[in-house]
């Protein structure tokens, strides 16, 4: 299967919708009564030279704070750009988010697991229960050297096992665990592990600034959010919203940071 061209088309579709922001809106089966709503965004690259990182973060936080009834937010990696001293700075910026938030370590964060825990308040591999029915799994995929790594299989299995009786589990890993993107890594055992858990509803990636669509592996959805900062990628900073209804239906849609346009969406 030639996956890369398909993903490139997804990205181009998102770009073309700038003038038609609601083209895909009607195809999503929105839940009538939303039980859970969360937002994920990635790749802010706080401190990257020659970028207006302060403005990109301010605009994202303003957009998030304008959303209603957000249960939590996940900033899915590359919080900073290479310099570890920047992590406390961006923590102070993210503290302006009015909903609870969690963060993943990306390849540009380049801090130790201990420093990440002390600064961000939770480990690089982390699980959290939300509203009794929803399991959140954050998995590390890099290190202080910024290497691209597969998630730790033992930690991933233990995390998923801890939530095996829940109806819904959402997984966040900064780097795509498949080489179907230019910057992904080949971690098929991890994908097979995810597919063995019926309650894993979706997995979310960052890292690929020019990818903002969805791919399927074993009928499991894997979604990207483009980027909201950094020096390259799609021309529209974006973030992703997920809603789950009381009836179990779930949708995810990508929005522009500045205008709030819905660019694309999928039923999960």
The major pleated sheet works out as:
6 strands, mixed
Query: What is the CA–CA distance across the termini?
Result: 22 Å
Mean pLDDT, to the nearest integer, reads 91
In total, the number of domains comes to: 1
| DSSP summary: helix tally | 6
Number of strands: 12
Strand order of the largest sheet: 3-2-1-10-11-12
Rg calc:
17 Å
Q: What is the CATH topology assignment?
A: Purple Acid Phosphatase, chain A, domain 2
Order of helices and strands: HEHEHEHEEHEHEEEEEE
User: What is the class in the CATH system?
Assistant: Alpha Beta
CATH homologous superfamily descriptor: Metallo-dependent phosphatases
Q: What characteristic shape results from the CA principal axes?
A: globular
Could you give a quick summary of the protein structure above?
This protein has a single domain, classed as Metallo-dependent phosphatases (Purple Acid Phosphatase, chain A, domain 2, 4-Layer Sandwich), CATH 3.60.21.10. 23% of the residues lie in helices and 26% in strands.
């Amino acid at each position: 299967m030639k996956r890369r061209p398909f993903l490139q088309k997804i990205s181009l579709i998102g770009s073309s919708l700038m003038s038609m922001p609601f083209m895909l809106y009607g195809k999503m089966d929105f839940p009538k009564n939303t039980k859970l709503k969360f937002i994920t965004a990635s790749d802010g690259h706080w401190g990257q030279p020659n970028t207006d990182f302060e403005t990109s973060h301010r605009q994202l936080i303003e957009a998030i704070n304008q959303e209603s009834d957000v249960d939590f937010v996940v900033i899915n990696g590359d919080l900073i750009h290479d310099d570890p001293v920047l992590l406390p700075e961006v923590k102070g910026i993210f503290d302006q988010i009015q909903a609870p938030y969690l963060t993943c370590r990306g390849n540009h964060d380049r801090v130790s697991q201990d420093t990440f825990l002390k600064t961000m308040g939770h480990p690089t591999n982390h699980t959290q229960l939300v509203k009794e029915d929803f399991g959140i799994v954050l998995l590390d995929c890099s290190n202080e050297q910024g290497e691209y790594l597969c998630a730790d299989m033992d930690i991933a299995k233990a995390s998923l096992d801890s939530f095996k009786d829940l109806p819904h589990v959402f997984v966040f890993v900064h780097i795509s665990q498949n080489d179907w993107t230019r910057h992904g890594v080949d971690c098929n055992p991890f994908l097979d592990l995810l597919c063995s858990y019926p309650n894993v509803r979706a997995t979310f990636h960052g890292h690929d600034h020019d990818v903002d669509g969805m791919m399927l592996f074993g009928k499991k959805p894997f979604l990207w959010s483009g980027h909201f900062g950094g020096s390259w990628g799609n021309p529209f900073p974006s973030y992703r919203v997920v809603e789950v209804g009381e009836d179990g239906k779930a949708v995810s849609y990508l929005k522009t940071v500045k205008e709030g346009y819905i660019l694309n969406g999928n039923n999960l």
